[in-house]
Every structure is written in C-alpha cells, then in structure tokens.
Amino acid sequence: MRSAFRAFPFLVALAALVLLLRTGTAMAQQEEVEDTVVATDADSRPLFERAREKEAADKTAKPAAQPPSGFRRRPKNRFAVPDPALELADPRTYRLRVMIRISAPEGPVKGITATCPIPMDWPEQQVRLLSQELSPASRVSEEVLPGQAAFIKFQVPFIKQGEAAFVERMYEITRYRTKFTLSADELALPKRIPVELREQLAGMAPGVETNDRKMIELAKTLQTANLNAPPWDLAKSFWSWTRDNVKFENGDFRGAMHAIEQRCGDCEEMSALFVGLCRLSDIPARTVWVHSHDYPEFYLVDNKGKGHWIPAQVLGPAWFGEMAEYRPIFQKGDRFYDPLKKEYVRYVPQTVKGTDARSLPVVEIKHDILADSDINAPSYQNP
To answer: Taking the complete model, does pTM exceed 0.70, yes or no?
Structure first.
C-alpha cells in the first residue's frame, strides 16, 4: 500500500482556492446516536440493507439533508473503553509528530483552512499530546468523530509572500498487542448494528461493492460451504479465502472487486473484500487504517449479548482474532463524508482550502513516527 500521507498543492486563482490533498482518508460525519437498527426474523435481508432503508426513511421525514453533526461535535470517547475479552499485552510507546505547513514563496494567500487526521484513544491505543507549536496569527482546533477518527483544523487568515504558517504537534502513543479470548462457541451474530457503524452502513462504502453480483455469489458460495458453521468460522473462511486467493500487488486503491476479478491487490483491496463478504453475511465489519497499512475488524456478540470487535490480518502474518500491530491508528471505518467534495469517501481526508491566491502555495502535511527502532515486528511482507 502506498503511503497515505502524501500532500500536493493546487492553485485556484482570483475568486477561490480549494486544495484537495489525496491522502487516502475521509471525513466521516457520524453523530453519536443511541438508537440502532434491529433485525427481525421476518426480514432476511442483510443488516446493512435494512440500515440503508431506515436511513432513507429518516431523510424523507426531515425537511432537508444536512451533513451529520458528528463532523462538528466533540463527544466523549466512550469507544476507548477496554473490552475485557480483548487481552492487551506487550505495550510499546513512541512519539508521533504531526505537522501542517503552508508557505507562499511566489505570492500571498488568504483565508487558509487545513485539516488532517490525528490519533485518538482506542482500547488498544492510548494517546497523549506532549506539545504544540503554532505560528503567529494562526488557530488550531480539534474534532472527534465518535467511534471513527479525530482530526485537527488549522486556520490562517493571511500568509505574506516569502513567509509560512504552521502547526506542529508531538504525541506520545502507546500501542498494545491484542488477542481475543472468548471461544467460537460463545459467539453469535448480532441482532443490532453497532452505533459506530450506523452512518457508514447507510450507503455503500467506496470500494466495498456489496451490490456486485460476483461478490454476492462469492459470499453465497462460502456461506454454503460453511453451512451451520458458527459465525466465527464463517468469518474465518472469508479471511482464508482472501489470503489464499488474492496475490499481493501494491498500488492505488482499486476496490474489492479488483481483488475478486484480478485476484490481486494490496492491504486495501484485501481488507475491503473481507469487509464486504462479512457485511453480506450479517457480520458487521470495518477497516482499520494505521500508518501506511489497512486491516479489518469484524463484530460478534457473546452469550450475554455484549458486542466485541475482533481483528484479522488479511495481508502478512496469519493473525485471526489477534493483532501485533503497533503503528498508530488514524481511523476505524471506510465510509466518511468529505465536506468539500460533498460526497462519501473511503478515508478521512487531508483537506486544504483558501479564499484567494494569485500564486502557487506549497503545502506539507506530515505524520512522522519517532522511535529508537522499528516499532513493528515481524515485517508485513507476504509469507
């Protein structure tokens, strides 16, 4: 997978400047809602289809569709509460530097706003802000998308020719190796979609083509081959099929159908395929984006009805129900709202916009891991 932290500038002269930096991530705008979509015995459709229908009904009942308010709110992060069934071990602590720098070497620019993802707390990740440096006359704020991601908003009213504005943050990250400890026979399909997936499942995630006939047929074939198997075993059959039948080939994101049709892809395609197969089988699933890598999680409930997110590594070490990944987590999910494009995209975007520029500014957005040695072991090359 290519690095998801590339930024490149654009110029829009005279009236408006809008700089969109292709980084591979997207701004999900999910409100923290307490209601969930409940499955019924009379409706055999996948949960995500019923969620879409409910979302459509909600929209028709409201006077106007607005971007979800999760894009603006900062609710308490209850999604970082540890799961007793997820064993945490072998913590590793390191620093992460996040930087936005905008310079005007050839002419002044006005009204700059830039955003970029930052790490947030999860059960397997603890984050502490150590320091922040901010250029004069600049402002920075922080937003949290509940159960999804976090980002900073950097605002600069004016940059003179030959000058620059910046924000630089230093974080301390502590990441844990995880292992799910419940047995397969204690787990079942959920009757409700997790709150953190409600908005994502209201529409098709980019690159997770669950309406494609070939993906539907593949899901049915694997379901038939695992008839009456526990949901854990069904999810594991999706994981095994993906690892056994999709050859590693790095490149731009091409979606799950590329992995099915061409039998190749990188961690993005493989994660999207696993997520799609799970969703077609009533198993909630999502993509976890860490620094320069993706892997999926799926969701089952125990015999007390409590839900659990369970990790799987579709590319690299054969981890199912465990994860020895130490790179910082930047998002969990794969369908987020981009307020500038006004559409749903796969990743929380790094976005820059301005109100006036007569020359090309230079934009840098960086996420640098600072550690004494490689924080991950073993490597992520195909076995």
So the answer is: yes
